Amino acid sequence: MPQNLISLDIGADAIAAVDQAIATLEHFTKPFLTLTASEKKDLFKMGDKSVTFCQQTAMVLEQNQQALPANFDYAEMKSDLAAYTLLEPRILRIKEVLAKMEDTQTALGSDVMVATSDGYALMKMFGKAAGLEELQQAMKIRRPGRPRKNDTPAD
User: Fold this and answer.
1) C-beta neighbour count of 104 within 10 angstroms
2) Which alpha helices (H) appear in the chain, and where do they start and end?
């Protein structure tokens, strides 16, 4: 039985709108950082469990600013926390959209792989392999030594 996890026809207007939204995000994130894996690894990170701690500590610091040393930049910390708080739900939304797009692309790719594999097998089975020689050679190069589904040992 053929597989068809999804049928999707994305119109030109929809693609243009998505491209515009991506361009807007790219423009918005120009001043953002890009950290290397090593830089990320070395950072002292604020995770889900520490957000509340940071927010509560910021409130205590606000009430006791007079006790802070002159070199403690409370305003910068408060600004960073505000920006972090604003970005958090938007990042979650973008991750959800990206996951949905990736899952859809995976399903589409699976549908195509199943259909083309079935079609290839049908062409071989019914002797209509004319024109498949180049494809067979390309598949042998792509997957040397790996038998393909429905191939005979002579292939």
Assistant:
1) 14
2) 12-28, 37-42, 48-63, 74-125, 133-142
Pairwise CA distance, residues 128 & 7, whole Å: 28
What whole-number distance in Å separates Cα of residue 70 and Cα of residue 66?
9
State both tokens at 59: 């409130």
Q: What are the tens digits of pLDDT across the range 72-104?
A: 999 999 999 999 999 999 999 999 999 999 999
Tens of pLDDT, residue by residue over 30-48, are 999 999 999 999 999 998 8
Give the pLDDT confidence score for residue 136 in this predicted structure. 72
Residue 117, amino acid: S
User: From the CA atom positions of the chain, what is the Rg in Å?
Assistant: 27
